[in-house]
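Sorry, can you check?
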Amino acid sequence: MTPSKTETTFVTIPRGARRMFGVKDLVTSLNALGGVWALCCCIDGDRARAAYAVMLGYAADMFDGKVARALGEANRFGAEFDTAADFVTQALAPAFILYLAYRDAGAPLGLGSAGGRALGLALAAALVLAACARYARRNVRRVDVDFAWIGLPQTAASFVVLGFVQSHLVARWPFCLWAGVVLVPALAWLELSDLPFKHHRGLRPNFPFVRLAIAAFIVTTAAALILDRHAGWDLLCFWNLGYVCTSWLAMTGEERRLARTRVAEANARLRAEEMARAAR
């Protein structure tokens, strides 16, 4: 029996266009729920468990895109839902964990309880405001670069923060948290910068040393988090600080120049759009 025109058309429509919510969004929900669990742990004052909840949310985030592509469910809703879930798990939850670390270390820092809370609040606010501004900029100024993020990705910044506050160094000598007064604002600034940070996707395969570093990061950090929690956080901070400082090495000179050009083009488009909007 020959299928009708309606049936033929339906078969050719991608699953992601047929329905907004799909299996891939259930995986993304696990990412968001990891962030919710982390926030609840923060309310209870348990920042160690909150940090693990963030990592579980990130584990789910690693798979939602793969599920979407495998099932043909990729759509704009999924992309926006993923960004919103990341905001909860990779921006809000780490900021709350950071606040708890400083709240509980007021005396070792020589600040007292109120001073520790105030410093923790200021640093947490820097992370959240940077994440909000980055999200808004992403929506109004699209930069067409397929091999890098423009500005430090939230995940890398969050991992540095989590690794830092949960590290052996801070556990043994809490006064080392003073380093966060420089580290956290620097991370916030990098999130809002126009610097390119190479990611694992893109048409050009990563250099062999980059693929090796990614594998080493995943294997060593996961193993350490299971076997020795503080060593795991040390490695998380180490690898991600390495990424922050050396990501430019993973790009060719031509790619870095292309990123600058695309940012300039995106800024020009945004100015033109805002001028046209103001002239209406």
In short: The longest helix spans residues 112-140. The mean pLDDT is 89. The longest strand covers residues 148-150.
